[in-house]
Amino acid sequence: MSGALLEIDGLVSKYGRQLALHGVSLVLARGAIHCLLGQNGAGKSTLLQCIAGLRRIDGGTLRFDGISIAGEAAHRIGARGIALVPEERQLFDTLSVAENLLAGACARAGKAAIAADLAALYQRFPRLAHRAGQRAGTLSGGEQQMLALARAMMSRPRLLLIDEPSRGLSPLAIDDMLLFLGQIRAQGSSVLLAEQNAHLALRCADQLHLLEHGRISFSGAPAQLPARELARGAWPGMDAVPGGSGGRACSHTASTV
Ligand SMILES: Nc1ncnc2c1ncn2[C@@H]1O[C@H](COP(=O)(O)OP(=O)(O)O)[C@@H](O)[C@H]1O
Ligand SMILES: [Mg+2]
């Protein structure tokens, strides 16, 4: 199917009388990694929560696959194929790794397909397989992030929203996560990754969106980004990006998630 996967037009969100999003417009393509780069307080989490139906929107439109989803309940939006990995991960700490993964598939029918997806994820993340019976709360930070991503994938999302997953991760864990995002894209799903770290965003983004004080100041391919835009923002990680452009980390190789 052609056309955009998600079209956001003039999205407004408020906390009380305080505007957090001032009319955000974004178009997300199918099978692409989009990075939403913004400093702390820019409105990244608010935007992802609005898309996932976890926050009421105060204006504007949201269309997923050509259908308006504005005002829909979170579980209905989830059933349409949008999954959110929140900033705080929200794992079920006292449940096992396996139970957390199966919870990700709770809205799906078809036991055989669920079991096959679980097996594929265990193959992709052997550390989760080794800890399948272990309580999620006992995992390391990196393993918990992996579990949160894998749990979201158990719902077979067409759009995966990920809120600052790199926080507290080792460089190796970040590399593996970016590789996984590339594999998700290779399967035809799209990713919207919220990040504060420009280096990381530039390593994996097909499309970059700068969010500043609740407004989009740039949307386009990273190569189209004027250097002055990043310099103006003093983004974390930019010291590690000579000339303002990063290497590509998300493999285009198709593989089973
Ligand atoms: N629960 C809340 N109550 C009031 N204001 C909030 C709340 N959550 C976020 N905000 C405000 O909304 C703006 C955007 O916040 P947020 O979406 O969390 O930004 P980011 O995720 O980019 O750090 C900030 O000014 C923040 O202070
Ligand atoms: Mg946030």
Gross CATH architecture of the domain at 1-78 and 190-257: 3-Layer(aba) Sandwich
Mean pLDDT: 89
DSSP summary, beta strand count: 10
Question: Which fold does the CATH topology of the domain at 1-78 and 190-257 refer to?
Answer: Rossmann fold
Note the overall shape. Answer: globular
In what range is the share of β-strand residues? 15-25%
| Low-confidence region ranges | 242-247, 253-257
Q: For the record, give the distance between the C-alpha atoms at the N and C termini, rounded to a whole number.
A: 22 Å
Measured on Cα atoms, how large is the radius of gyration? 18 Å
Q: What percent of residues adopt helix (DSSP H or I)?
A: 25-40%
The kinds of small molecule bound in this structure are: adenosine-5'-diphosphate, magnesium ion
Written as H for each helix and E for each strand, in order along the chain, the element string is EEEHEEHEHHHHEHEHEEH
Strands across the major sheet, in which order?
Answer: 6-7-8-3-9-10
Structural class: alpha/beta
CATH level-1 class of the domain at 1-78 and 190-257: Alpha Beta
Query: What composes the largest sheet?
Result: 6 strands, mixed
- Identify the CATH homologous superfamily of the domain at 1-78 and 190-257: P-loop containing nucleotide triphosphate hydrolases
The helix tally amounts to 9
